[in-house]
């Protein structure tokens, strides 16, 4: 059987200007600083084409010209790097009770973040708060509003599967709203709408555990449990944006078959603690219980290990990732405990002797991973041209 290899390569006459700009920006981002000839060799573009693109990018304020570096014969080559203040990406996470916003610069560094209570989740009210926070973010960063490259919007999934009553939407007021069209119009920006697990997965590519990893799965602990799947550096979204709804699958457990997120999720843990008279509404409260070796929390961890192990084996065999990353709104101590507690199956394609990465890792993006990931969607679009078959 013949397979097609995907190459994010440039082409001199036939590719779009946008594609080649993304190609050059991506090479500069990965290298930190790089010369025109190196970009040309890596991208397949001619040196003249690269020179023209760099001139455009520098003129747009996206690149900085640095020192000259000698590499053998010829004149020393000018090195180019990203201008951090050349562009900004806005990330917005909408939860039923809170609105989170982050502003990233072109290097992917967070220059502003804010968490604010959300009392009214109607589209008009949410949008008004986002506009206020966008203004505050740009003012704090001292950024030109014209430098805002786009906005990533994160909302709980699944999308477009049934009526609000049937699926118990966390944001029922949005059930009949085309969120992409709504926010594109309201913010007057390019907008990328994603579920929280996908956005968090992209956050890990931006300086997190997924940086430099082409194929990985991200198991996201939000209120429930979601899965972001990254392959060739791109999200796998599915026909309707619902790929990775891992929390809905049925897995074995010590108490028989269970729906995964009813056994392994933050809501599952909090419900278990509430049944035993313990209120733990925040990650800090959960971390304190873990540090105190609370017997009820430890009991839940023991119960969660088996269904989580089955889910991980399923992900490995279906997706063949380089690694699976665990992260989100769960304390690091609990994630580390779950990673150790999983009895990883040897009946998995990931059970290989030669591995560059462990089968399970904890993410590094923290509790605002989905918010930062929303902004990272904008940066990823700017730096990563779509893969094409050759």
Overall CATH class of the largest domain: Alpha Beta
Q: Uncertain regions: pLDDT < 50 for 5+ in a row?
A: 1-8, 11-15, 162-168
pLDDT averaged over residues:
86
Shape: globular
CATH topology of the largest domain: Nucleotidyltransferase, domain 5
Q: What is the CATH superfamily classification of the largest domain? A: ATPase, nucleotide binding domain
What is the C-alpha radius of gyration, as a whole number of Å? Answer: 22 Å
Task: Write out key terms for the chains shown.
single chain, 390 residues, alpha/beta, Arc Repressor Mutant, subunit A, Nucleotidyltransferase, domain 5, 3 domains, 5-stranded mixed β-sheet, 13 helices, 16 strands, 38% helix, globular, disordered N terminus, N-acylmannosamine kinase activity, WH-like_DNA-bd_sf
């Amino acid at each position: 059987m013949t397979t097609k290899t995907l190459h994010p390569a440039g082409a001199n006459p036939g590719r779009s200007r946008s594609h080649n700009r993304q190609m050059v920006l991506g090479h500069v981002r990965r290298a930190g600083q790089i010369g025109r000839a190196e970009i040309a060799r890596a991208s397949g573009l001619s040196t003249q084409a690269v020179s023209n693109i760099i001139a455009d990018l520098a003129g747009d304020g996206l690149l900085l010209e640095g020192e000259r570096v000698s590499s053998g014969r010829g004149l020393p080559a000018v090195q180019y790097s990203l201008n951090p203040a050349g562009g900004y990406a806005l990330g917005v996470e909408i939860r039923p009770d809170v609105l989170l916003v982050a502003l990233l610069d072109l290097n992917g560094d967070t220059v502003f973040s804010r968490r604010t209570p959300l009392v009214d989740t109607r589209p008009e009210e949410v949008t008004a708060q986002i506009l206020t926070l966008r203004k505050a973010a740009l003012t704090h960063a001292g950024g030109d509003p014209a430098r805002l490259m786009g906005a990533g919007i994160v909302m709980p999934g699944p999308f477009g599967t049934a009526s609000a009553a049937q699926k118990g939407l966390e944001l029922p007021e949005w059930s009949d709203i085309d969120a992409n069209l709504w926010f594109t119009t309201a913010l007057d920006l390019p907008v990328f709408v994603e579920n929280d697990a996908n956005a968090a997965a992209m956050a890990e590519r931006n300086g997190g555990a997924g940086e430099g990893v082409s194929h990985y799965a991200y198991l996201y602990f939000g209120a429930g449990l979601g899965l972001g799947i990254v392959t060739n550096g791109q999200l796998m979204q599915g026909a309707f944006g619902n790929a990775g709804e891992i929390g809905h699958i049925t897995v074995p457990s010590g108490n028989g078959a269970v729906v995964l997120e009813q056994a392994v999720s933050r809501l599952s843990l909090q419900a278990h603690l509430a049944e035993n008279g313990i209120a733990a509404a925040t990650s800090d409260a959960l971390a304190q219980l873990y540090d105190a070796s609370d017997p009820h929390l430890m009991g839940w961890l023991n119960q969660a290990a088996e269904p989580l192990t089955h889910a991980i084996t399923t992900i490995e065999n279906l997706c063949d990732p380089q690694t699976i990353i665990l992260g989100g709104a769960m304390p690091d101590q609990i994630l580390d405990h779950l990673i150790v507690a999983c009895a990883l199956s040897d009946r998995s394609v990931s059970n290989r002797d030669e591995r560059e990465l462990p089968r399970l890792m904890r993410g590094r993006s923290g509790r605002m991973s989905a918010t930062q990931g929303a902004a990272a969607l904008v940066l990823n679009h700017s730096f990563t041209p779509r893969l094409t078959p050759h």
